[in-house]
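Box 3.1 — From sequence to structure: ATP-binding cassette domain-containing protein
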Amino acid sequence: MITTQLSSELSHTELPEVWRPEVQLQLATGENVLSALEVDLDARLHFAKGLVLLTERRIMARAPGETVWQSWPYTHDLTLKLHDHAGVGHLELVNHQQRVASWRFTLGQNLLAIRLSEKFVALRDSCVTGRPMAQHDDHICPTCKAPLEPDQDECPICTKVVHTPPSTWTLFRLWRFAKPYRWPLLAGFSLMLLSTGAHMIPPYLTMPLMDNVLIPYQNGAPVNTELVWLYMSGLFGSALLAWILGWGKTYVLALVSERIGADLRTNTYEHLLKLSLEYFGGKRTGDLMSRIGSESDRICVFLSLHLLDFASDVLMIVMTGVILVSIDPMLAAISLLPLPFIAWMIHLVRDKLRTGFEKIDRVWGEVTNVLADTIPGIRVVKAFAQESREANRFRVANKHNLAVNDKLNKVWSLFSPTVSFLTELGLLVIWVFGIWQVSKQHITVGVLTAFVTYSSRFYGRLDSMSRIVSVTQKSASAAKRIFDILDHVSSVPEPANPVKLAKVQGHIALREVGFRYGNRAVNRGININIKAGEMVGLVGHSGSGKSTLVNLICRFYDVSEGAILLDGVDIRTLAVSDYRRNIGLVLQEPFLFFGTIAENIAYGRPDATREQIIAAARAAHAHEFILRLPQGYDSMVGERGQGLSGGERQRISIARALLIDPPILILDEATASVDSETEKEIQKALDNLVTGRTTIAIAHRLSTLQKADRLVVLDRGKVVEEGGHDELMAQEGAYYRLYQAQARNVDTDLDDATRKRHDD
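Predicted structure (token representation):
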């Protein structure tokens, strides 16, 4: 008989109870499960359950949607890689540089995935070397091994971030987003005041109830039934009124807080799109997504749930319960009658809330998908001046997210007031039973009064159990991180009174241009005059300043010295989007968005017709391979162009530039990362693209610049030579040395290839 064990180190969170019988059947005698991760996405990113396990001998897994278990014993070349993107975590098991298995999961499981990957390394090393597994400290930086505080989620040494404690005054800056909703806010606060007043009515009614009914009865007078029903009706009516007002207050404030959060996200994202590339160079994509996503969501929760709550004390609940039982156990039991109904309601609402929150997580993925598309491809967005379009995409996704939250709030806003209503009914039950007890002379009026007071305190503490201090600090921290973005001023500012150019000819002049990255000078004293329709090639060693010069011409950065003129006008006086609409950019590594081939080609001109898209694809020599795809121009392109070769992605990029028909064209190493055969196809497309345009080309292979009208040689940020290919070769200067060095490398590669064929 096979006996198995689950390690005592393994928490129930890591291995849900539903998996335990199946896991035990897979384990060998004496084998223990030391770590586990429940993965919840299949290969198509549909929700499905799977499991990855670590034992002291092997890694085991059952992929989502499958029934067969697989296992791999620990070896020295077995590696478990963990990474995430766009809200999806990814585990890859690699052996001999080949992937043998992979699993995907939502980022709610990310902490368990990190623990699993760290445990895997320790178990593999222990199994291979035979040494005992080293103890792991959860509070050290995995990169630099520096100790972290228990509440730190990132290492200040690695991230080089100076953490300053946020002030709660930062939350008052949110008023700029709340101001447009001041009237709904006023209505919510008015409902809050009325609701509080309604909750004050029942204690007030207890005074005449005691004076006019209970005390006279103890003195021998008969019970006034009409007064009893009158006061009971007043108590019930006040409870019902408080429930209605509480529902209205919660619902209105929840709607307002969601809209404030939506505006906060949209404004932050639109401001982010306006910042220069310099800002994005110093930020992590995940951090920016977290600020716009989870941090703004935390502020929404603070505004809708915690801002109006009062502090609750769990110890007070326990002490009040003890006092109730000590006064009268039977009356205490009666007072707790609403608790089963509250538990039943929680059970009834729980599933709706859980499924609702799961749907919110999925819809939130639509918002983060826009971020994951745009932020890594911000250069393409800016090059084609599509900031407004991306902001609109985000606004549409955010509106969908808002609608889902509104639907859930209808359930959520009903939940809390209903609990309050049931607690008020509990007090009503106490009064009814207490009066009966007084009539039987089992308790005195004083005992009943004290019992009602303590019961009110007990139920009041049940109604609000959050502590506002910690929530306020978390929300202030979230607000500070968001305002860090909103307060950042772009280093490429819009002109106050932009100049309008009727028609761009394409004449570019660089006058004593200099640029610095911080204190490091990259370009100095550059003077280049590019005539309209001329093709100029930029050549030089890596780090000579070629790409920086292109970034300056595109105005991704502003010059530190001198000026760049377009048709005699300083580009800093032109509206940024108007200027960039005149530039077509083809990068070394083209960025394609998730969508169809046609949508990617038409990115710079979303209103382009299908005929115009096809014409651009034909000119880019992309039409033939597009037709070979399963759905042609409607074929979906994976993220960053997955599923297409480098040459195919590049030709789609060229078609995208052709479609906008720009007077200025910039080619940044457009053929550097493809083979010679593909380069010929791309070169044919480029020949169509450069015709009649001012073209600035950077090329690693100098042979691709033979058709350039003029070559500009850069060295250490300066122009050292300028002229045609033959002229520069005759001078035997910097360009000559570059050309000869490249020719020797080509000859060496050809000789190596010849020797290899001979050996074969």
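Summary of the box: DSSP finds 24 helices and 20 strands in the chain.
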